[in-house]
Amino acid sequence: MGLGKFIERLLQLIPVLLGVSIIVFVMMLFTPGDPVAIMLGDQHVTEELENALRHDMGLDLPPHQRFFKFLSNALTLDFGLSYYHRQPVWDVIASRLPATIELSLAALVFALVVSIPLGVLAAVHKNSLLDRIATVTSLFGVSLPGFWFGILLIIFFAVNMHWLPVAGRAGFESEVAPITHLLLIDSLLRGRIDAFWDALRHLILPTITLGLPMASILTRVTRASMLDVLNRDYITFAEAKGLSKTKILIKHALKNALIPTVTVAAIETGSLLGGNMVVETVFGWPGLGRLVVESIFVRNYPLIQAAVLFYAVTYVMLNFFADILYTMLNPRVKL
Amino acid sequence: MTTVTYWTGDAGTAKSETLFQRNMKLFASSRLSMFFLFITLGFVFMAIAAPLIAPHDPSDADLFRRLLPPAWMDGGDWSFPLGCDALGRDILSRIIFGSRVSIFIGVTVILVATTIGVLAGLAAGYLRGWVDIVISRLVDILLGFPYLIFAIALIAMTGPGLQNIVLALAYKEWVIPCRVVRGETLATSGVEYVEAARAMGASKSDIMLREILPNILSPVLVVSTVRMAHVIILEASLSFLGLGVQPPMASWGSMVADGRSFMLQEWWLSTFPGLAILLLVLSINVVSQGLRDAFDPRFHD
Amino acid sequence: MKDTVLQIRDLKTCFDTRDGMVTAVDGVSLSLGRGECLGVVGESGSGKSVTFASVMGLVKNPGFIAKGSINFEGRELVGLDPKNYRKLRGKEIAMTMQDAQTALNPAYTVSNQIIEVLLAHDETLSGSRKAQRRQARQQALEMLQLVGIPSAETRLDDYPHQFSGGMRQRVMIAIALACKPKLLIADEPTTALDVTIQAQVLELIADIRDKLGMSVILITHDLGVVAEYCDNVVVMYAGQVVENGPTGAVIATPQHPYTQGLLRSIPRLSDLSRRIEPIKGTVPELIDLPDQCRFMDRCTRAQASCRDLIAMQDCGAGRQVRCIAPGLAGGSDV
User: Fold this and answer.
1) What is the pLDDT of residues A270-292, one digit of tens each?
2) A contact test, residue of B40, B133, B149 with most A CBs within 10 A
3) Neighbours of B4 (CB within 10 A)
4) ipTM, interface predicted TM-score of the complex
């Protein structure tokens, strides 16, 4: 894809990102409570100090100026102080981000690894037992409430069977000097196999819980897409050429069939961001999602706003990436 | 399945029915779909008739009954079939009343969102111009937020509670029917019967409502059912997190949350509400799948 | 006696559908000699495509070959195991399809699609994988030049959608002929093309046929094509062969009422005043057909004795017809 077109598309994102920022800002404006009062809590300060604080935070400015201040601050990752943590908001978010990224990536990988083979096999052996099992499981996968399923998994695997840990991301003994900040990878890179296993054991249940709905959707998409492709003339023509079944499947069918799968996966990854909140809460996973939920209860508004903005920007970029991916995969789409 | 014949060789018995009716009949012919539709309607009935069906008052707490096991277990009591929760409230009654929350929110959000979405989509698709630009931009921006995040942000602002949840969910939900309708409207605007209506001097709103709308109903119907299942799970998730309906109102999600600390011994507190969610959502999903199959033109011979 | 490349005897192919057992091909027999071009004519539902799908071994569930024999160069194909069948396909017997746009995989370049058939079958390629690829690529280039693609070297790595309709058809032919098959089955090679391109493609096929000594089967509903390019013709209707023989003779003096009808329904520039006469009625459903002439309901000469199993009858000069009263009604005024 030409660089020019790419940049053009990138620029089209700006209005959307701007709009998103405006909405977050508006939400902030309508949030109840006086930020200064909440920040000060029970402390008593002079009125001058209070006004100085207000001025510092830009609260005395008219709305549009406040918006620009908000925007320029955001671009430098300055979201103010977190009420609860007495630290800059961004620092708090950044410290919890790796855990969420690790979980989301794991769920994505899980979903792809399960759904692609399953979807392909279900399509190739249409109406067989495998196909029916796949269809039914998919249906359950999207109908199961994640929080309930997670709890059941914990009870069964952790408590009853003692195979897996109950909650959290890793034990203390698995502390590893971070490189990528993804514990699973870092432990391997540092040669700490014990830490790796510990991290993996903690990761399994939350990954399955978070990834199951996505795996279900992707299985259905892959199956449908594969069925569609297998009916196409170029598959018949490939057979007429005398190519082997496997070759036809892998070379001719798969490449075309996986396009919808990949694009849907990219889009659905965004919904993983939301699902994180529930799964992290159930499994005590120290990620951004759980942080946001906790923040709501303590009314830590600066953090909530920053997190929402962050999520939205990430989501927009993800969708953009999905778009690009689709045009790259489909040689027929004129760029 | 026999093929549907409209005309016999000579103009004999010609059955004229709309495509919509034909597809609905196709849907009805699937036993699976009808079975689960029956279950879904059962839940709706349960929600409406809750005060009449529930054996007890859902808020009636009695600490002597605390953590009573289900009837078939040791120590159970058949007047409290599914046992009692930590405050001694009858779980079955709470589940029955909980269906009110789920059904109400599911139906209301979808109705509101679909109404707004359809009108917006029609306007954007048919009137085009700046109307389309404004609406499309709005849709794009709203789509930039992951669903749950947006809802949570709104609830953080407004506080939890039934009304706020409905609004929070509806604010994002309307974009989905809007996009579908806009796409369909764009596709059908150039069609002959619309041109004909215009030639006969019909007004813009007339055209939108009378010519275009009936023909985009089927995709809207299918999408709405799919989304309803999604909304119900979202509401349950929000309630689980404590951001949904507040006590003493019983929501299945909050029931699961309440029972969480007791999962080891008194598993029935969380399990039954969860099963209720699963069953309702599953039923709606099967029905929506059946609708999708019935309305999918590729499915017909 | 000319060398027989393909001999189909009494082929019966059925499809077990929800609505019943459909007999798409019911007792079809035909033969094809070396270097011969056979035209197979019929409308949709005549069974012409299914017959040759059966020859290729591409009839799939719920379809199956119920009985009959397909003999290719002395080998029996009915019941042949999949592995050996695969070796035949693309190498000895090749097929092209009606719409080149959908027959070519949009995700791969044309050279890739030619090379893969060479790599699968061509035993003359030698050396390492890489070396074989290079040789195959060279051959692919030659094939593209053979089928008349201009600037073939630059177009080797183009994708199917970058070619025009006629060029795509040629690419498809290039792929089919890459391994120099003995038999080419061309299914409606011109239907999806403009009239001017049609002629080019047919000329190309005729040309290659001469160069390679290949036998060709042209499946078409267009009698004009058959008249121009085929040595012999087989006319099919409702799953049966109703007439066959040398093209010139069949077209000059068609014996079967259906063939006559077909010829009468072709508009003719030379005689603009003549009305076009379509054949009344429609093709029967191929389920549970009674033992009688299948064309009866549309035939102007039907009699009571047509309500019987009608077999193929010789009518001289290598011609056969499935009719008890062939020829009559003044032949055709072609």
Assistant:
1) 888 888 899 999 988 888 999 98
2) B149
3) 12
4) 0.84
